[in-house]
Amino acid sequence: xxxxLRGVATEARLLLIGIPLLLWTMLPIYHLFLxxxxxxxxxxxxNLWPDHPTLRNFAVVxxxxxxxxSHFWRQLFNSLVIALAVGAITLLVAAAAAFAISRLKVxxxxxxxxxxxxxxxxxxxxxAVPMYRTMGIYGLLNSQWALIWAMVTIAAPYAIxxxxxxxxxxxxxxxxxxxxxxxxxxxxxxxxxxxLIMPSLVAVGTYAILLAWNEYLYAFLLLSKDTDVTLAxxxxxxxxxxxxxxxxxxxxxxxxxxxxxxIYYAFKRYMVAGLTAGAVKG
Amino acid sequence: xxxxxxxxxxxxxxxxxxxxVIGANASFRDWQLYNPKETWIGFQHYASILSDxxxxxxxxxxxxxxxxxxxxxxxxxxxxxxxxxxxxxPGHRLVxxxxxxxxxxxxxxxxxxxxxxxxxxxxxxxxxxxxxGFGQMSWLAERWPSFLIVIFTDxxxxxxxxALILLAALKSLPREPFEAAQIDAAGRWRTFTHVTLPMLxxxxxxxxxIRSIDAFRTFDQVWVITGGGPARSTEVFSIYAYxxxxxxxxxxxxxxxxxxxxxxxLVVAWLMYRTIDRLTNISR
Lengths: 282, 284
Prior knowledge:
The complex is a heterodimer.
Chain A: H1 5-36, H2 56-62, H3 72-102, H4 109-121, H5 128-137, H6 144-168, H7 172-180, H8 185-196, H9 198-214, H10 217-222, H11 231-237, H12 246-266, H13 268-279
Helix pairs in contact in A: 1-12, 2-12, 3-4, 3-6, 3-9, 4-6, 6-9, 6-13, 7-8, 9-13
Chain B: H1 2-26, E1 29-32, E2 35-40, H2 44-50, H3 53-85, H4 92-98, H5 101-104, H6 107-117, H7 124-132, H8 143-171, H9 176-183, H10 188-216, H11 220-225, H12 237-247, H13 251-280
Antiparallel strand pairs in B: 1-2
């Protein structure tokens, strides 16, 4: 870049906006991090850097050495299983539906699409109690399937919508060619549709996994045993008391944010492409 | 090939339509969880909620204020961030990575952290204010300061989302209009308002719509930071329905509150969709 007075002025102005923005984003995370590496008694000192930074909090978390954390590994495992199940089921259900609606123009497809969009407007928190009763009727209460199905239905409408938008953009000639070659609808789905729509599938799967991973309200309502709940609920339990070990909560919170961050960075390219494909009709 | 949409239809009916019907049915009945008489009382719950001063003068304004403020703030900041990230400077990949962290952290954790950041004795903000010479400030003991923290937290969580999508949209814009603007010697701000913004309008429209519907049902952040307090002054819709049901143990009334909320957001979302559609032609 050629260094001119005007250029310097613009850069200075950009920094003027950029630095506060960065601070705004980073400050709470820094605070979280500060908590996580502070020993218990100095966590509240209000300093900008702890006098004796320590990794002991993480050791306590990994060793399940605190009452609130006595099922840390179990709950982390639960989070993982439930999030993956939600991701897989959402993908299967939504991809099949989007394929049928967009490519095969199945009768009743519009009805399902409209139903999905309608349920997207109904807030999850509003449905919490009826959902609880419904799961009771199905005999699913206190089973992790209750949470899995609940999260699938929350993720499905958006997933179907995004996948349908993406499918509408695929050229029909591909389908026609495959049909002329004698492909059955299932072969069309497996061999033509799924490979073409892969980026959107990755995006939608990631979305569903992240949604289930961080869900608090439903996980808290539908599961009750300490060995069944996800770590998100385990973290929420800290809030029950005023003198909770906050430094441990923050350490666990940081650990809990790592898997989503990893998934996210692995699939970042797909995420943006896939989610905006739904956002912008071409 | 009905088999392909059957799973989606079944899931939606079993876990969305059935709960909605159960809730709707309960909202017309006297259904306290400790005394489930389940007698039909018609619109009594609806009438009592719609004439509840807390609902009318606290919950309703709070919900819309939260929705409007958080969407507006995170849109403006997200737009600024997207522009900064679109500009290549040393280390911009690292910054791009770091900036997305608020989306990764579970809302429960983010909200708890925020609660401590603003704690009147131990928080960083309090420490800073003391340094600059302000007195003690009990943020969470008053309505507007605590509500401000809720808005701030929600906007903080969602700014990266806007930034990410707007950045992708910025990168996909054609170059020619910008070159033309440069030839016409348009300044940065004029280029932004006259070239960038009109081209981004469809994306902004959809983002605002999706985010507004989401913001209307915010629960986690409000619950963790204020719990609706002090004295119910920061309650929003989802908290109101939750309190009616799980703290007052009134399933009928809680369901009625839920349904009123759902109807309001349906109308609001539809009006927004119409307006945004007219402004940006997203459906074409």
